[in-house]
Known about the structure:
The protein is α+β, with helices and mostly antiparallel strands and about 180 residues long. About 35% of the residues lie in helices and about 30% in strands. It has a five-stranded antiparallel beta sheet with strand order 5-6-7-8-9. Strands 10-1-2-11 form a four-stranded antiparallel beta sheet, with helices on one face. A two-stranded antiparallel sheet has the order 3-4. The longest helix has 17 residues, at about 55-70.
Amino acid sequence: MEQYRGTTILSVRRNNTVVIGGDGQVTMSHVVMKSNARKVRRLYDNQVIAGFAGGTADAFTLFERFEAKLETHQGHLIRAAVELAKDWRTDRMLRRLEALLAVADKNASLIITGMGDVIEPEKSIIAIGSGGPYAKSAAEALLDNTTLDARQIVEKSLKIAASICIYTNDNFTIETLE
Length: 178
């Protein structure tokens, strides 16, 4: 799965809480264009949280399509994700969109790709974007070795990623579902 440069999105699920957080940096090549972008959003009457890595306009298009799928399928996350992935892979216009989505509700966490993939992660951790591997490593260590809650793990892991990845900053947007 391609790791898009310019962002870090991390989701952690612990106990009855799921959290998605992301940094605010938008880059073009090696230049920071914006430092306070909101790459994590609440969808479907605040019942779903989603974050993106990749092209901003592409991601907003996908958020709109995904929310429409959630409406069509009465908020059933997995069904909406599968339907979006099918459309994304087969529709000529959508096929050109370059982004990854990390989505979660109270019951499931998923990565949705333009290749038609809907992936449920191991260990309830999703990490996408250029800083994703750093954030994922930190989150796995914190999950295995601390009693921190999901939000604290996301915050600490994103800080670690921001200290390593030049395409990630420490201006975070973090959303929680309990």
